[in-house]
Design a protein that fits this description.
With 274 residues, the chain is of the alpha/beta class. The chain has 2 domains: 2-163 and 231-273, Rossmann fold; 166-228, Orthogonal Bundle (DNA polymerase, domain 1), CATH 1.10.150. It has 12 helices and 6 strands. The protein has helices at residues 8-23, 31-45, 78-81, 84-94, 106-118, 157-164, 171-178, 193-203, 211-214, 218-228, 252-259, 262-273; strands at residues 2-7, 50-56, 97-101, 125-129, 144-148, 153-155. The protein has a 6-stranded mixed β-sheet, with helices on both faces. Strand 5 and strand 6 (153-155) form a beta hairpin. Helix 7 packs across helix 10 and helix 11 runs antiparallel to helix 12 (262-273).
């Protein structure tokens, strides 16, 4: 079987701002939610049988206590933020496994789900649907891959090396040096992607760098590595069978009505039949 793990927060942002190109700022209350649901249903129609969606129930996580500049919910448009929790409820009603994260982040849930799924010998491949570069650390050979829906790129371990210049397991070290603006930490001043890849390629993990390479900035680099390292110990499910989509719940009809999209119900019924 193939297990599909979806970054629900990214998908919500993608649909919200995709609609913005056409609605002239007149946001429908659940427009982005409906878009995500249709994306999930399309995946099911195209053959996905086992899937789960990770979301950021709250934007903050334990990382905010480690670095004051780490990303928060500040700046997220109210019309978008108001759709976070309705998306989780709608996914559950659709019968899809959903993991709303509080102390951890959606990325940690994806990393944890990938680990759990990859430990099952029945799983042929794990596809992590997100363009976030920190998820590249979860890629393993050709079995655990990262899928960028927008560019239609499927990135295995060799693809990670080609893009970043380092192996997947060294992505946290690479990001610690160059920073991640999306997550709110800057990396080390004056260290670009080429330099970071060269240093990591030569010495490996930051802990193994000779003392003189980073000097007084070593501790800061290690802090950024801690921010970049995804947690994979979240207890999301015990068996991949829990990710098997068996159709929408009885409450999905009422949910679709609240969302104002009748096509969701008809599409889910058709998908369940075949």
């Amino acid at each position: 079987m193939i297990v599909h793990l979806i970054d629900g927060t990214y998908e919500l942002f993608r649909h919200f701002y995709g609609l913005r190109r056409f609605n002239k700022g007149n946001d429908r209350p659940f427009g982005a939610v409906n878009g995500v649901l249709h994306t999930v249903l399309q995946m099911i129609e195209e053959g996905a049988t086992h899937l789960g969606v990770a979301t950021d129930h709250v934007i903050e996580s334990f990382r905010n206590a480690l670095w004051p500049g780490y990303k928060t919910g500040d700046g997220i448009e109210p019309a978008l933020f108001a759709q976070f929790h309705p998306l989780e409820d709608a996914l559950a009603a659709l019968g899809v496994a959903v993991w709303p994260m509080v102390e951890l982040e959606a990325d940690d849930a994806l990393a944890s789900a990938a680990r759990i799924a990859a430990e099952d010998d029945r799983v042929q491949k794990v596809c992590i649907w997100t363009p976030d570069k920190d998820l590249a650390q979860c890629v393993h050979g050709e079995r655990v891959v990262q899928v960028d829906r927008k560019t239609k790129v499927i990135r295995d371990a060799q693809g990670v090396r080609e893009k970043f210049g380092v192996a997947p397991h060294l992505i946290p070290d690479f990001l610690a040096l160059v920073g991640d603006a999306a997550d709110g930490y800057p990396g080390l001043a004056g260290v670009g992607k080429a330099t970071a890849a060269r240093l990591v390629g030569r010495y490996g993990a930051i802990e193994d760098f000779p003392p003189g390479v980073l000097g007084e900035r070593r501790e800061l680099a290690l802090l950024f590595k801690q921010l970049a390292t995804l947690r994979s110990d979240a207890r999301l499910f015990a068996n991949v069978d829990e990710l098997h989509w068996r159709g929408a719940t009885d409450g999905f009809a009422a949910c679709a009505a609240r969302l104002g999209d009748d096509r969701l119900l008809s599409r889910s019924l058709k998908a369940a039949m075949g």
